[in-house]
Amino acid sequence: MCRWLAYSGSPILLEELLYRPSPSLIDQSLHAQMGAEATNGDGFGVGWYGLDTTTRSMPNTRGPEVPVLFRGVEPAWNDQNLRELARSTSSGLFFAHLRASTGSPVQQTNCHPFRHGRWLWMHNGAIREFGRMKRDLFLAIDPGLFSSVEGSTDSEVMFHLALTFGLEDDPVAAVERMVGFVEATGRRHGVENPMQMTVATSDGESLWAFRYSTERQSRTLYVSTAMATLRSLYPDNPAFVGLSEETRVVVSEPVGALSGVWHPFPESSFGIVQPGDDVMGDFTPRDP
C-alpha cells in the first residue's frame, strides 16, 4: 500500500514534516511500521497551495484555483530534488504521498496526489479485483471528466468517480456515493470486500479525510492533537512555537516519537479540518 500525510495550518517548510521528525514521512518510505509493506518506493508526490493566498495566512481570501504538484518515480528517500524543494517551499496546506504500487506501472501519472482544478486527492488502499471491475467503473465517470484521467490506478478512478458524484459541492456525500458505487459494482462481479481506503482531499481551504473498508478492517489513519494541548504537554518544544490553534496533521502512520500527539480515526469515519471547529462523523456508503 502507501503512506501519506496531509497538513493544514500555519505555513511551514515542507521539510518540517517530510524530513525532520524521527521517524519522518521519508523514513516511512523505507521502514513503515503500520503499512502492508515496509518499503514504499514506487514513486512519490507532493501537492501544495501557494503561501500568499492560502486561507491560513490570509483568512478572507479563497485558496488558489490550481495547487502545485511535484511528483517523481524514484523512491522518495533517493530524490535530491525533493529534498531541495522541501527545504525551500512553505505552505499552509499540503499533501505528501509515498507510493507502494498494487500492480499498476511505476510512472509519474500514477503518483499521488491527483489534481483537478483546485482539488487534490490521495489514497492508501486498493479496489480489490480492480481489473474485473475497471470497465464498469471507468464508464461511470462523467464524460466531461473522462479525458482528465491520465494514469491507470484505481485511486485516480476513485477521484474521478467522486468528482462525478459531486465532490466539489458536498465532499462527504460524494465519497460515500463513490464507495457505494464501487461496492455495488463489486457485488455484480462477485468481488468480496472490494473497497479498502484511507483518503485525503482538499479544495485549498478545507481538508477532508476518510477511513473505510468494506470488511471494516481499514488501514490506519491518525490526526494530531489540538495545538493548545500539545503546548501544554510540551511547553519547551520549539516545534509547536508559532503554529496556529487550527493547525492539524493527518497521517497514515505517526511521524515523530512524542506521546500524546496522535489519535486514531475511528473505523468507518470521516474528518473535516477547516477554519473554525473541526468535524468528525460516521462514514456510510450510499447508493449513488
UniProtKB/TrEMBL annotation:
Keywords: Glutamine amidotransferase. InterPro entries: EgtC-like, Gamma-glu_amide_hydrolase, GATase_2_dom, Ntn_hydrolases_N. PROSITE patterns: GATASE_TYPE_2 (PS51278). Coiled coil: none annotated. Residues 2-284 form the Glutamine amidotransferase type-2 domain. PANTHER family: GLUTAMINE AMIDOTRANSFERASE DUG3-RELATED. This is Class II glutamine amidotransferase.
